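Batch manifest, entry 17 of 40.
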Amino acid sequence: MAFQGVGSSELTAKAGTHLPAGLHSQGLVGTPEQFSFDLISTSTFTVKATQTRHIQATFKVTNNTSLTLDNLKFVPVTTPTSADNTTFTNLTYFDGSNAADKAPSLTATQGQTFNPQTGQVTTDAGSSPFVTGLDVSGVDTTGLDISSVKTYGWEAAASLAPGASTNVTFAVDLPMDPAGPTKDPFNFSLQFTSVQDGITLTSAVQQYNRSTKSFGNYTQFPTLTYSDNGQNVTHSLPAYYDLKNVDRTGAAVASVLCSFDGASVQNISDASHPNRYRVEMQALGNHTLQVYPGASCPATAGTPLLNQVVTGVTARMNTITARSNHSLAVKADGTLQSWGYLLGNSTTTTSSTPVTVPGLANVVTVAAGNLRTLAVQSDGSVQSWGADGFSGPFTYSPAAVPGLTGIVGVAGGYQHSLALKADGTVQALGSNYQGQLGNGTTTDSSVPVTVQNLADVVNISSSSYTSLALRADGTVLAWGQNAYGEMGNGTNTGSTTPVQIPNFGNVVSIASGYGHTLALKSDGTIQAWGSNQSGQLGTGTKTNSNSPVTVTGLTNVVSVAAGDSQSLALRADGTVQAWGDNFTGDLGNGTNTTSSTPVNVTNLSGAVAIAAGSYYSLALKADGTMQAWGSNTSGELGDGTTTNKSTPVAVFINGVAQPTP
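Output type: structure tokens
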């Protein structure tokens, strides 16, 4: 890359192939046209305090190969003719004289911005991340006129498909010569190559990592040991992993995924996914997935090409929940608190402050339906109270649900309930007049029935009369009522068995309200479908949709929640956005104005989980406290009053468990 006119008003930059041998891209086809570089902008400034000049150039970079490039980076290199092992060449002064002696003082760096009023230099948020400490030991430079590859460079894209483009900012710092600008390099070139991960192991469903604040591989597996037909078994929710191993020409290199310490690995490859594996934990704790060369695993663990640590964890999928006018929270000690109505404490009274649900211990996850509450205990059993509205009177204290074992997740609809087993299958019970139990009938059931043709599920949700499941391949299936497009399959015809939403994938979690569903995708955006009379789909309209549509203006989302007619999104920075009905302050923005596009929830930060009920919402913070806003007719906000709140108020609770994974 040639930088010319440094320090002048005519600064420009141009990328081209190094001659004579050509620096081709490691891991790519061996032609000089792997990429096209189209200049977008250049900038330069000086910092008197450090006597440094900063130069940067941003290019639109297009992948001209036939390959999808994984974790693409541009990395400085040296060639056999490089002096002083430097990546910079062709240095000249303003008058054209040789400035090669300045090459060692130039430094590749992150793009930056300068505030002339304050004199402060800050990272350019729109520039490419500059990474260091790269492992370049596997970079194949055979025949490429490269002497060394540096361990730092610019991240271009996590994945760049053929023909796709991304913006990349290259930046350089150079010290200013005390003798004046005529002794600063006026022109110079930066030598670099492109590298990608030759070996990648990627889960179809991604998980959010709070430490890195990003989505990555599914490594935290909800795992449970329970009794099944008199035998103790251990299962975890499954993950699908895709293995890719290519050389720099893009040719596939034979390799296999293995484990020797408690992870079950099964090859489930097909024509669409030629190197796909189903992974399941067989015990709690850490395990290692390993990639080896060849077509079969070695007899014993050796030196793998790649390691991936995975962990079997106790499932705490939902530690707060809301539905209708009752709220619940699992505390870190395994007890359960409830407020609003349907408290589970053997009374019919309401409470505007949290009360302990008696007789329950070791609770790990909870779900509220309109008329029934379900609490999962650490042994995989389920306790419930309330009723499904068809099979007898209400119960006001917890009782075990017969026939439910090995459960790691639950969801509640208007008059039916769903339970996710650790083996990835789903059970359902309750009202079934819309086929929401998914067993091919419309017959109600007071005992659990198995949802048909459904396996390897990792997440479930339920609207009032519709049920949904997210599979380990990132696809979503739905069954039950479809009058408003609740199934998202492009029709308004209901089904008594699961139907896959077509041409829809890369989903990481789902949440359903009264008649609509939100799906969070791995890129941090949200898709929605179903009822939209209050703008709860977030599209800027109030038109129902029977297929997924994009929620307007939202990125960096890590969790979603859906209430009766409002929707919530938790962002990576701990703030919350809301949209839809706002008659009772449901959106938490200090108004009662409905919005069909997302708005900020006022004065809320540090949130780690969200839940939505009937016209009110809850947020869990990292310190174990909670905030609530919206309707409060039964005390469901838990703030000691029955007054609606249009901005968040503190719930009278602390020590709430953090969700895992």
